[in-house]
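Example 9 (inverse folding). The structure is encoded as follows.
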């Protein structure tokens, strides 16, 4: 499964990823060292998925607006933001890798619905592989231990 992901790329270059307009899985990592080939490394801090009509591009933009404190509309990014509250200080250390699934989410046929189901299963498989490699959930998928930034605001 790891070989179906793109290589890690810098967060700011995410819109250049092949398949970004399709639904799929995305992984967010934070590292001061250069990340290249995708793997379920400890620096991977969040695994997410989308089956939305806007595809991965739309979902990653939601993540981006949340970590930039423009809008808190992404739960995982809200937990990410709790730890990394200064976007300018962290932005050059954020990486993303995706696995896109070509299907029609606007007018889905049965085969498209099956692919969308595969995406959901793939997210669970990613969590399982991450846990097998690292002994825990990715930091911001661990809802019991990762606080949300939106909950500390008054």
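The amino acid assigned to each position is listed next.
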């Amino acid at each position: 499964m790891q070989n179906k992901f793109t290589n890690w790329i810098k967060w700011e270059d995410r819109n250049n990823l092949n398949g970004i307009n399709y639904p799929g899985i995305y992984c967010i990592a934070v590292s001061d060292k250069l990340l290249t080939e995708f793997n379920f490394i400890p620096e991977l801090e969040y695994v997410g998925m989308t089956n939305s009509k806007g595809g991965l591009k739309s979902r990653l933009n939601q993540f981006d607006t949340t970590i930039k404190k423009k809008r808190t509309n992404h739960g995982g990014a809200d937990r990410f933001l709790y730890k990394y509250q200064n976007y300018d200080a962290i932005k050059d250390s954020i990486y993303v890798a995706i696995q896109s699934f070509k299907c029609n989410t606007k007018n889905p046929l049965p085969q498209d619905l099956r692919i969308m189901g595969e995406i959901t299963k793939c997210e669970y498989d990613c969590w399982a592989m991450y846990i097998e490699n690292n002994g825990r959930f990715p930091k911001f998928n661990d809802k019991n231990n990762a606080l949300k930034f939106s909950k500390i605001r008054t």
